[in-house]
Amino acid sequence: MRENPIARPANYEAFPVLCVDDERANLVVTKHNLGKRFKVYLATSGKKALEILSREFIAVLLTDQRMPGMSGVDLAEQVYRRHPDVIRVIITAYADQEATVDAINRGHVTRFIKKPWTKPELEAVVIECIQNYQNSLALKNMQQRLVNLDRITSLGIMASSIAHDLRQPLSYIEPNLMFLENELEHIRQLLPPDKANVIIGRMEQYLNDATLGAQKLRTFSSSLLTTLSGNSMTRSQVQIRNLLNSVLSITRSTITRKARLKLELPDEDITIYGSEGRLNQLLINLLLNAAQAIETDPAFENLVILRIFPSEMSLIIEVEDTGKGIAEADMDKIFTPMFSTKGDAGSGMGLAICKQIVSEHDGSIEVFSTPGNGTRFKVTLPLPP
Ligand SMILES: Nc1ncnc2c1ncn2[C@@H]1O[C@H](COP(=O)(O)OP(=O)(O)OP(=O)(O)O)[C@@H](O)[C@H]1O
Ligand SMILES: [Mg+2]
After folding, report:
1. Of 114, 165, 219, 230, whose CB count within 10 A is highest?
2. Ligand 1 atom closest to the CA of 339, numbered from 1
3. Residue of the CA atom closest to atom 19 of ligand 1
């Protein structure tokens, strides 16, 4: 398996060098000169070099130009096509102008080394190539992050516009429901009482359900807007019950499709000082992750628990699930922006944002997980004195 390590700049061994020369003696000398500081692979032909490149991670290619069969330029050209990240260098004893032009145009080589080279010269070139390799890797990572951020921003804009647009139909549904309620009262007076009780009673039930639905939509749209505008950290007194109403109006249906939702809440409402929008985001991310971690049916056999309790001077919020858990190797990475195991379904920003929100509130977040058994996130937030 080819792997692509991100290493400290001085850790040259993490960036292997492949040396290609048809003369074994030359390879032995190169290995002797580079072997102590760098990881070196050797190949006696272009064909063998391509085989090594297809199975090993290589950062730098150092190839002799004059070789029977595939020349250094031919090899550099193939490597440029198949492994464009590898930095290519040609070693030549001849001031061969045609080969030089070819190397630049076809092989996209970064450097030439003239034979005979000295050890410091060779080392300096290899170090420069490794640095070039690291720079282009960093640039690629940055570009990928920008693409992801762009996608997240677009999603955010789309979600706010949906939340906003939901309000427009509500602005005529809600008053019309009220008018209907008044009209029903008029009809009741026109009907004989026994008929009125049956017919109007039923219609009132339908109206109540429709009004409840409209209210839910309004709460949902407000919660979404509060959450999406939660980037600015305006602090105020936040009632835990209010916060939960809004969070659950967004997440409840997603959770209950996967699991039973168990709420373990304090008897008395608790007030904390913070940003309602940001705390909304925090809980929504943790609850959605919990639901997404559950991959087995049926829903009633799975559990998502939201547990809130005061402890000394802090408020503890725990989100626990009986989902697939987190692999030991991923535990260090999950709070890193863009780390996701969900492919296209995840941006990998959820927990990074949670960590940021918790630190904005002078709190802490911990995770406990057993692969195959489930996960518990524990958030500790300071309570006002
Ligand atoms: N409750 C959980 N159970 C198992 N794995 C989890 C849980 N919460 C987070 N993870 C792991 O942590 C990774 C990062 O989570 P994070 O919320 O940052 O991103 P995401 O859920 O993949 O994408 P999104 O940005 O849409 O939230 C997830 O991809 C998943 O592997
Ligand atoms: Mg997530």
Report:
1. 230
2. 14
3. 348
**Residues having CB within 6 Å of any atom of ligand 1:** 285, 289-290, 293, 321, 323-326, 330, 334, 339-342, 346-352, 375
Nearest of 120, 114, 119, 110 to residue 59 by alpha carbon:
110
b/e code 241-275 from CB counts within 10 Å (16+ = b) = eebbebbbbbbeebbeebbebeeeeeeeebebebb
Q: Which amino acid is at 112?
A: F
Q: How far apart are CA 367 and CA 333, in angstroms?
A: 12
pLDDT digits (tens, 9 = 90+) for 244-297: 988 998 889 889 999 999 999 999 999 999 988 889 889 999 999 999 999 998
For residue 2, pLDDT beyond 80: no
Q: Which helix (H) or strand (E) holds 333?
A: none
346 CA closest ligand 1 atom index:
23
Cβ–Cβ under 8 Å, residues 71 and 47: no
| pTM > 0.70: yes or no | no
Q: Which is higher by pLDDT, 44 or 94?
A: 44
Q: Which residue's CA is the nearest one to ligand 1's atom 7?
A: 289
Angstrom CA distances, 34 to 42, 135, 193, 381, stand at 12, 22, 101, 54
User: What number of residues does the chain have?
Assistant: 385
CB 384 within 8 A of CB 272: yes
Going from the C-alpha of 116 to that of each of 38, 91, 96, 124, the distances in angstroms are 20, 9, 15, 15
Q: Are 247 and 280 in contact (CB under 8 A)?
A: yes
d(CA 91, CA 110): 11
Q: What region does 372 belong to: left with phi over 0, alpha with psi -120 to 50, or beta?
A: left
Separation between Cα atoms, residue 249 and residue 331, nearest integer Å: 30
Task: Out of 18-27, 243-252, 288-297, 323-332, pick the least confident.
Answer: 243-252
Query: Is there a contact between 381 and 358 (Cβ–Cβ < 8 Å)?
Result: yes
Ligand 1 atom closest to Cα of 351? 18
- Tally the C-alpha atoms within 13 A of residue 363's C-alpha that lie toward its C-beta: 25
